[in-house]
Design brief:
The complex is a heterodimer.
Chain A: E1 19-28, E2 31-41, E3 46-50, H1 57-65, E4 72-77, E5 80-81, E6 92-95, H2 107-117, H3 122-135, H4 151-163, E7 169-173, H5 181-198, E8 201-206, H6 209-215, E9 218-223, E10 226-231, H7 233-238, H8 243-248, E11 253-262, E12 267-271, E13 276-280, E14 291-296, E15 301-304, E16 314-324, E17 328-335, E18 339-346, E19 363-368, E20 374-376
Parallel strand pairs in A: 3-8, 3-9, 6-7, 7-8
Antiparallel strand pairs in A: 1-2, 1-4, 4-5, 9-10, 11-12, 11-14, 12-13, 14-20, 15-19, 16-17, 16-19, 17-18
Chain B: H1 4-29, H2 31-58, E1 73-75, E2 81-83, H3 88-95, H4 97-130, H5 133-144, H6 151-162, H7 167-174, H8 186-210, H9 215-222, H10 227-238, H11 240-255, H12 259-265, H13 272-282, H14 286-317
Antiparallel strand pairs in B: 1-2
Helix pairs in contact in B: 2-14, 3-14, 4-8, 4-11, 6-12, 8-11, 8-12, 9-10, 11-14, 13-14
Classes of the chains: A alpha+beta, B mainly alpha.
């Protein structure tokens, strides 16, 4: 069968990665910022390095830019080893978190800076700067200094300055971090369109999981200088491989239990606190009796006042708190052992007389599909 | 009803309290003005008043009396006021080559010293800013440390180092070379001025560089600028305020410097500070000495005004 790999080059066994990170480590004294990581990024990807502060994502990005050199390992971009290449000779450009616009130059001069360094004729420089500024809709601000612009405009200047050199890879350090929420959402889509239009490989560093989910083709979740999981947003959200990933990306209710039955097409996990049985509808290569964790996403559970037909895949509890968000409501349900579970449920029915369908302190049943729970071994 | 006497008393008390109230109100609303007023009055008494004395004397004539100059205002017979303003002193400065040459020489020595201080001080300030926290404080301390010894003492120490039988020539002789003459040359004056005023260059540069956003240098490098290009296109333009402040702090006092040319330059280096000293103390020609001082002030006010102008411009852009 002929599979179309154009949108998913990482699935293509014959595709050659554009950026190869081969067992790269970075030590600062005793501290290991990046711990022997391997990563392949393909041409045209919008790849996100996601993690909390100090997880090593920025160090990795700085190594791609050339501001830091690996303590061990190799970084290859488009086939060329970058280990001894200074930043000013790399085919990459970076958009800084603080934007790092030159305050003593106009917008125009900021954008032209990189082209002038390449010794391009002034006429072409001016033409390309003009094109770039019109693309980011800043033509009328060409003669302004950075301090005369708003945050969003500055962000676009920084983007224009990095893109005007037509780099092979664009590195973005928390590109939307300094913008307010509304502008962030808008810019997010602009970035995606731009990336698609130009076909440049983007590597984005962010701590914002929502940003990573919407922007990227693939995400690498980082912690303690290592990759926890690399995959598409859907893979990472629906099939996390560890408790850390499951709780870092979105919310998850976590249950500790043991495998009591391991069939070819199903697994049954029993937890003691709360006393509950989880039927999972896929087989696993795992020994009976081994300790596992079950992760359940808040939106994967149903909340109801009626008891479900069987005891498997359901828990009884009491409404502790309701967060009404308009489109959805978040319920915090107290179950046995004083544990609180989180459930989100769409508000599909308009309540009569303004009375919510489920109220505080009511007894409710939570239930879920056999396919909803994720079994985690670490 | 109140008696008339009583009512006046009430009115008086009322007026008093109203005045008190107004006064405290003024104090409250104008406290910023009051704080400014104190240094202003200070400068008025201790800077501006002496300046006008000097200005007055510069328009007088030498006289064999005490103080040794004529009065500008004299009361002639019948209560007629006579004002005598003499501009001869200034004309004399202009006509006598000695003064013009001395001014030019002072400006030349101060300019070259300023450039030398900048060339030495800029890398030093840069190194201090880029070093880690603890080293930074040690290095800054070392820059400030010389101020703990008297300036005069340090210049005397340099006499010992530069003398024909001094430290440097001892070392030269030890290596078997001919000793060189250092003390009482222009070189000695340059060494003295650069040594003395180097901290005044380093400290403003340091203060300026400390605020520099270093990611700008990374951005330049990322955009393809080699280190030297980054320096001339980003680092230097960003540190111009520090360069200007440091240069003025060196240039202005160096121009009027007296001790260093006197002790290290001997009679061989003419600087305006020495001429001023001689006119005042040896020739006892106060009017000419005053004119020399006023002319020096004019020479120095120009760069100061330039600096003010630039500062104003910079404040505008930020």
């Amino acid at each position: 069968m002929d599979i179309n790999y154009t949108d998913r080059p990482w699935m293509d066994p014959e595709a050659e990665p554009f950026i190869k990170i081969q067992s790269v480590s970075k030590h600062f004294g005793d501290f290991t910022a990046v711990d022997s990581v391997d990563l392949d990024i393909y041409k045209g990807e919008l790849f996100c390095l996601l993690g909390g502060s100090g997880c090593g994502k920025s160090t990795l990005l700085r190594m791609l830019a050339g501001f830091e050199y690996p303590s061990a390992g190799n970084i290859l971009i488009d086939g060329a080893n970058m280990n001894d290449v200074p930043p000013y000779e790399r085919p990459v450009n970076m958009m800084f978190q603080s934007y790092a616009l030159f305050p003593h130059m106009t917008v125009e001069k900021n954008v032209a800076y990189g082209l002038k360094r390449d010794g391009i004729a002034l006429k072409e420089v001016n033409q390309r700067v003009e094109e770039m500024l019109s693309m980011v809709e800043l033509s009328q601000f060409a003669k302004r200094k950075p301090h005369q612009l708003s945050g969003g405009q500055r962000q676009r200047v920084a983007l224009a300055r990095a893109l005007v050199k037509q780099p092979k890879v664009l590195l973005l350090d928390e590109p939307l971090g300094a913008l307010d929420k509304r502008l962030r959402e808008q810019t997010q889509y602009e970035l995606m369109n731009l990336q698609e239009q130009l076909g440049i490989t983007f590597v984005v560093v962010t701590h914002d999981q929502e940003e990573a989910m919407t922007l990227s083709t693939r995400i690498a979740v980082m912690d303690n200088g290592r990759f926890q999981q690399i995959g598409t947003p859907t893979e990472i959200y629906e099939f996390p491989n560890s408790r850390h990933v499951a709780t870092f990306i979105g919310n998850a209710n976590m249950f500790e239990g043991r495998v009591v039955e391991n069939g070819p097409d199903h697994v049954i996990v029993k937890s003691h606190n709360p006393d509950c049985e989880f039927y999972v509808d896929h087989g696993m290569s795992i020994q009976e009796g081994s300790k596992v964790w079950i992760a359940l996403r808040p939106e994967k559970m149903k909340i109801s006042k009626q008891a479900p037909d069987n005891d498997t895949n359901s828990i009884k509890g009491m409404v502790h708190d309701i967060g009404y968000l308009g489109g959805t409501s978040t319920y915090r349900i107290q179950i046995e052992g004083d544990r609180i579970l989180e459930i989100t449920s769409p508000n599909q029915v308009r309540p009569k007389d303004g009375n919510p369908p489920i109220d505080w302190d009511e007894e409710v049943y939570l239930s879920w599909e056999p396919s909803s729970s994720v079994v985690l071994t670490k | 009803m109140n008696s008339p006497a009583e009512s006046t008393m009430v009115a008086e008390a009322d007026l008093k309290s109203r005045l008190m109230h107004r006064f405290t109100h003024m104090l409250h609303s104008n406290w910023k003005l009051l704080i400014l007023l104190i240094p202003f009055v200070w400068l008025l008494i201790f800077f501006l008043a002496p300046f006008f004395f000097v200005l007055k004397i510069s328009f007088a004539e030498y006289a064999l009396k005490s103080p040794p100059y004529t009065n500008l205002i004299e009361w002639a017979d019948e209560g007629v006021m006579q004002i005598r303003i003499v501009v001869d002193n200034y004309a004399y400065l202009w006509e006598d080559d000695l003064y013009v040459n001395t001014y030019l020489n002072s400006v030349k020595i101060a300019s070259i010293s300023t450039i030398l201080c900048l060339l030495i001080g800029y890398p030093m300030a840069y190194a201090i800013v880029r070093s880690d926290h603890t080293t930074k404080h040690v290095l800054l301390m070392l820059i400030i440390l010389p101020f703990w010894t008297s300036f005069l003492l340090r210049v005397y120490a340099w006499m010992g180092i530069l003398a024909d039988q001094g430290l440097i020539n001892d070392i030269i002789r030890w290596f078997g070379f001919e000793p060189i003459r250092l003390l009482y040359t222009e070189t000695a004056v340059y060494i003295g001025i650069v040594y003395t005023y180097l901290p005044f260059m380093i400290l403003p540069l340091y203060a300026n560089m400390e605020k520099l956003d270093w990611t700008l240098l990374e951005a330049a490098s990322d955009l393809g600028a080699r280190p030297t290009t980054t320096f001339f296109t980003v680092t230097m333009p960003m540190t111009i305020p520090g360069i200007v402040a440091g240069s003025l702090l060196v240039f202005i006092p160096a121009t009027g410097e007296f001790v260093i040319p006197d002790l290290l330059g001997g009679g061989n280096v003419l600087m305006i500070g020495r001429v001023l000293y001689n006119e005042f103390n040896s020739n006892i020609d106060w009017p000419v000495a005053s004119a020399v001082a006023i002319a020096l002030l004019l020479v120095l006010v120009l760069p100061m005004m330039l600096y003010q102008h630039m500062q104003g411009k910079e404040a505008e852009t930020q």
